[in-house]
């Protein structure tokens, strides 16, 4: 397994996906820290953890759709495409959804734990 998945997924799309996900995780840490110090945390700030994770997932779906469009355009132009090339293109296009889904899942779990700690 190649561990350079951000490059294989395409940096122009994977960077925003990663930034949205990291922002959700950092915000979750900040909110959790504030809750542990008994500070008041707004509902908007708590929900922003989930919103940022959702944006990471939505951006990954958009990047995936763009990748699939490029694959289909390539097939249309060159007619004869080997199965290996097609599989490599589909694999590269699916990386973004896997990464965005993982970041969304992490942000959702963080949001759920924060809400449980806060008692909403």
General description of the model:
This protein has 120 residues and is an all-alpha fold. The protein has one domain. It has four helices and no strands. The protein has helices at residues 5-8, 11-36, 43-78, 83-118. Helix 3 packs antiparallel against helix 4 (83-118). It starts with a helix and ends with a helix. The mean pLDDT is 89.
Supply the key terms:
120 residues, mainly alpha, elongated
Summary, kept brief:
This is MotA/TolQ/ExbB proton channel domain-containing protein. The protein is mostly helical and 120 residues long. The protein has 4 helices and no strands.
Multimer state: single chain
* SSE string: HHHH
Biggest pleated sheet: none
What Rg do the Cα atoms give?
A: 18 Å
Q: What structural class do you assign from the helix and strand content? A: mainly alpha
- Portion of residues within helices: over 70%
Shape: elongated
Protein name: MotA/TolQ/ExbB proton channel domain-containing protein
Keywords: Membrane, Transmembrane, Transmembrane helix
């Amino acid at each position: 397994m190649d561990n350079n998945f951000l490059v294989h997924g395409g940096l122009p799309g994977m960077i925003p996906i990663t930034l949205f996900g990291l922002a959700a995780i950092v915000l979750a840490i900040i909110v959790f820290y504030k809750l542990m110090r008994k500070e008041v945390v707004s509902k908007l700030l708590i929900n922003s953890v989930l919103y940022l994770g959702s944006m990471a997932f939505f951006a990954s779906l958009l990047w995936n759709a763009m990748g699939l469009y490029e694959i289909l355009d390539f097939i249309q132009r060159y007619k004869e495409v080997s199965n290996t090339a097609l599989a490599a293109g589909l694999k590269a296009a699916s990386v973004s959804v896997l990464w965005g889904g993982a970041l969304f899942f992490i942000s959702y779990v963080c949001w759920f734990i924060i809400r449980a700690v806060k008692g909403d």
